[in-house]
Amino acid sequence: MAVAAETVRPAAEIICRLPDTERVLDLRRRVRDAMEVPPVGWECPPRIDERFMCEPLIVRKARAVALKLSAIPTGLWEGQLIAGSMTLEMPRLHAEWGFPDYVTEGEREAAAERGLSIHSVFGHIVPDYPKLLAKGLRGIQAEAEGQRAQAESPDETAFLDAVGIALQAVVDFAERVAAECETRGLPQMAEDLRQVPAGPARSFRQALQSVWLLHMVFHSTMDGNALGRLDQYAWPYLQADLGAGRLGPADALELVSCFCLKFNERAKTTDEQRPEAREPEPTDPSRRTRHYTSSQLGTRRDSLDATNHWLQNLIVGGLTPDGEDGTNPLSHLLLEAYRRNRMTNPLLSVRVHAGSPGPLLRHACEVLRDGGGMPALFNDEALAPALERLGIPLEDARDYTNDGCWEVIIPGRTDFRFQRLSLMLCVEWALNQGRSRLDGSLGGEETGDPRAFRSYEEAWQAFLTQLDAMVGRVVRHVVESVNDRSTIAPVPLLSALIDGSIASRRDMTAGGARYRTFGMLAEGAAHAIDSLAAIRRVVFGEQRASMRELCEALDADFEGHETLRRALLDAPKYGNDDEGADEVGRAVLEAFTATVERHAGAHETAVRFPCGVGTFSWYIGIGEGLGASPDGRRAREPVSSNFSPALGRDMEGLPAALLSYGGMGHERLPAGGPLDLRLARRLVEGEEGLDRMVALVRGFVETGGSMLTLTVADSEELRAAQHDPDRYRSLRVRMGGWCAYFTMLSREQQEHHIRRQEGRV
Q1: Where in 288-394 does DSSP place strands (E)?
Q2: Of 542, 299, 271, 309, which Cα lies nearest the Cα of 406?
Q3: Residues with Cβ < 8 Å from 245, sequence gap 6 or more?
Q4: ω before 572 within 30° of 0 (cis)?
Q5: 443-499 pLDDT, tens per residue?
Q6: Please, are residues 277 and 286 in contact by the beta-carbon 8 Å criterion?
Q7: Sequence-ordered list of residues with C-beta below 8 angstroms from that of 299, at least 6 positions apart, any chain
Q8: Element (H, E) at 156
Q9: Beta-carbon contacts of residue 555 (< 8 Å; ≥ 6 apart)
Q10: Do residues 488 and 56 touch, judged by C-beta distance below 8 A?
Q11: 760: confidence class by pLDDT, cuts 50, 70, 90
């Protein structure tokens, strides 16, 4: 529902002047303090009853959901306005852990042969929360029951049975929580829970309660899902309450603040996360992450760094399906709650476009200026057309959201997965006959001895051959295994809230969703661009070295080849509005997207393959799996984050970085690819600094980029936090697609953030 700018402006100003209530101040303190308390375990039921083991697997999965929800504690945080908790305050019990087994040994072994298990639930989905609020679970149950007469196979009947069991389990859980509320003397909360999520929401408070309870249930049953466009689907309920006088602005702010605090109840900042408690992790080049086309090595450090990342993203602002601006007072309430809470969840993004209201941009920049790297900024002018080009109708394309990190999906209608494909591995293999420079293992194609390349075109063709083979392998694997998850890890509860599944009587994992997309995310893009640009300039343009000399320097990690390394470092670099580098960049991205389109074209009825560029927060591990590269980067050094210029290589300032980034053909990148920029705090102080930030955001929209993140911090502040972490426990930094408490990061990550802030190589 669009809201006129003159309505939004006073609403934003009023909200920002409102004080926090004592309830919110107390809850905020307690949530933050509870993060430092070590958790205790709980006894999750280990397995569904044996009498159910003769039922179809998807029905058994629903039984497992029901079993866990029948056992999960119903405890409440004292003083909260929203009920239901995965993690209790006292004792510090984490009930989101664990899930009952529901498969036979034969099923388990057959799944393991395909690399799957009952835990192969991908998350990264946004359920159809507008439908939940409009119809309630009973309405969705009735919809499923209405499909029984059309069921054409036992599998379709089993799916409908599973949906019914799972939805009833949530209704029963809500009743258990309502009874707990009555026991605690909280009749309003009990009344809300007896209305929602079983029935439609009748108030703003009920809308938030319904969304939270389903979100909590999904995350407690292995579905790490996001919230999508909360300000769009919950605003009509708040608007009605405000119009009827049932709520005032202060009441609304309190409710939204309490709601946002819920997402931090399970956060941890305990001693084992601190950098001084970390044990060194050995890395083995022969063992990579699940993204077998990525160069990333190691998992322990990255897993600890990501302790508080659960894909709990919500997005505000942006165009509505009919092309109007959707900014409303709830957009500002959510921004303000994030600013005041100073926590890492829920993650927050803002959609912007040429007509975005000034108050929204200023409010977003005020929040960014406070630190933490949130909100991320998404450009409708680039992303909606890119989605249309993928084959998504315009109305749905305008309704996009992110998946919990930053990848783009259509909320409530999409089954989504993704994989990272290393452009840098393709460069490395092209210059080493398909082999790793770290251990000599064969991962790519035999494209001839690079020492014999006589032109840049030969090097470029070798790169294209490696890229084509990598993309082809991924597409074939995805198409061949597209329904495999349904045989071991179906998601009947989530499927009930994904458009298309009930109507087709198929689980989302079996193709029931209206859209099925698989993101193909180019990894290490900036370094691949810079490497190819350096070969073109230094070797074949200026002829300052032969290909033999280049390969020898790479083999030696530039030891004894400092003069050549300096020439490579001085070559044109992406991020400087340099036409030489940007021409190579456009060619690399066009080659990547064209290669994906060529391989994926025959399969678009089964699955779409949107392209993007990303590393997420794994840039250190990604670099650890790469040898020295022709851009002058030494072996095992980190790569740049997402689609950002290589560290220390963007020498012409933020406008040049925006121009290079905006010219990379984002109309072919519907999955997205963030540009992560750093701002010194001194540059954004006062009204003049805020004006400067808003102008930067407007420039980002105008230059055609798709995603922008801005982290405001000073390296002195980060250094001080290293030396006195207890004074900086709320200091947050952007981590590729989420944010983290700086003092809880590994020493490698902390040092990397300081180097990035200082722009040092």
Answers
A1: 313-317, 347-352, 376-379
A2: 309
A3: none
A4: no
A5: 999 999 999 999 999 999 999 999 999 999 999 999 999 999 999 999 999 999 999
A6: no
A7: 289, 621
A8: helix 154-183
A9: 437, 628
A10: no
A11: low
- Residue 376, class by beta-carbon neighbours within 10 Å (0-12 exposed, 13-18 middle, 19+ buried)? buried
Name the nearest CA neighbour of 81 among 235, 201, 258. 258
What is the distance, to the nearest Å, from the Cα of residue 296 to the centroid of all Cα atoms in its chain? 18
* Helix residue ranges, H only, 482-561: 492-495, 501-504, 525-534, 547-555
Token output for 329: 């007072």
DSSP character string of 654-698: HHHHHHHHHTS-GGG-TTB--EEEEE-GGGG-HHHHHHHHHHHHH
Kindly report the CA angle at 290 between 295 and 46, in degrees rounded to 5? 155
What tokens were used for 116?
Answer: 């799957």
Round to whole Å and give the CA distance between 606 and 547.
Answer: 44
User: What predicted TM-score, i.e. pTM, was given to this entire model?
Assistant: 0.96
Q: What count of Cα atoms within 13 Å lies in the side-chain half-sphere of residue 287?
A: 5
Give the dihedral sign, CA 458/461/463/466. negative
In whole angstroms, give the CA distance from residue 208 to residue 81: 10
Question: What residue type is assigned to position 118 of the chain?
Answer: I
The gap from C-alpha 528 to its chain's centroid, in whole angstroms, comes to 23
Question: Hey, what are 640's tokens?
Answer: 């740049």
Coil, strand or helix at 517: strand
For helices 249-262 and 329-341, what crossing angle results, to 10°?
50
Report the distance separating Cα 711 and Cα 369, nearest Å.
8
E strands, 608-661, in order: 611-613
DSSP 594-654: HHHHHHHGGGTTT-B--EEE--TT-HHHHHHT----TTSPPTTPPPPSTTPPPTTT--S-H
